[in-house]
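Tokens for DGQHR domain-containing protein. Go.
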Amino acid sequence: MMQVKKVSEQYVEMAVGTVKIYTFPMYVKDLVKISYVAVRGRDEEEGAVQRVLNRKRISSIKQYILDGNMFVNTFVINWNDINYRPQFLNEKIEIPLVDSVAQLLDGQHRLEGLKEAIKLDQSIRDKQILVSMVIGLGTKEAAKIFININSEQKPVPKSLIFDLYGITDDDKNYAITRSDDIARELNENVDSPYYNLIKYPGNPRGKGKIDLSTVVSTLKKYVDVDGKFVDNNIKDLNFQSQIIINYFSAIKYHWDEEELWGNSSQNVFLKAAGFIAALEFFFEYVFPKCVEKKSFKLDYLISLFDFSEVTLITNGEIKGSDGKTARKMIMDNLKEGLKTEAPEENEYEY
């Protein structure tokens, strides 16, 4: 075995249930060296629980660090290399500085923010941070720690447990739970066209436009274990939420051009009929195009529509119509603006 550099620090030991956790200070550069991220749904190895990165959050953290700040809360790692192990000597923990020997269980975005900040200020490499280490945990044990940490800091989506442990066909609550989590993301994500517009039970009068029950009941058949998302191998909550947000952002883009999205009295998509119609239209007509293109990016979704010669439907036009009729009118209006790629008649072979 090759000789490696080691660092030795005093540590504090505690137990959470049967899991021992060792907490000690560490230089940023050393944590960067020994840690790596195992993403659930992408990496098959034991302990993979991390979510896909949010670039906007990383940028915000980078600026926070460059402004002279550092973190008080610990970074949590799962040491799982069998050839090199931490040693406990004379009331100190000795850490081998070997590349990628410890999974990062918590602190993914903070560490990426540190890496970005280091590019502009090398002195950050020698700043100290707190690290809490567990040793040799499998996926279920790592997931429990991940849930424990995040449920204390901020409630995590309930359906995250399905991403961590895998979707089970016999869980009757899966579709409702996942739909509720997507609704929450629609309501709380500042980039969502429905930011603060989902009406939750108990909301003050006037707060929210679309009932939570409408969002959940419309989404659940598409996010279920036999729905369009899972059928096309799109199982991660973050991906599903981002796709829905991007789609409605594309509609908002075109309705904004006519100054209609912000007009709550005329915006059909702030009514139940419009929300339902838009989602049904998406999964019937737009979703297959995105799957074929392998892209749900906002720019691509925007490019699928051209309403330059279409009169956009408003609430005034569906007023007095029953729900089924109103939904059909809205879907027909969206269909008018959806670009077609059908060949000309003389291009077919007969």
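The first strand starts at residue 6 and ends at 10.
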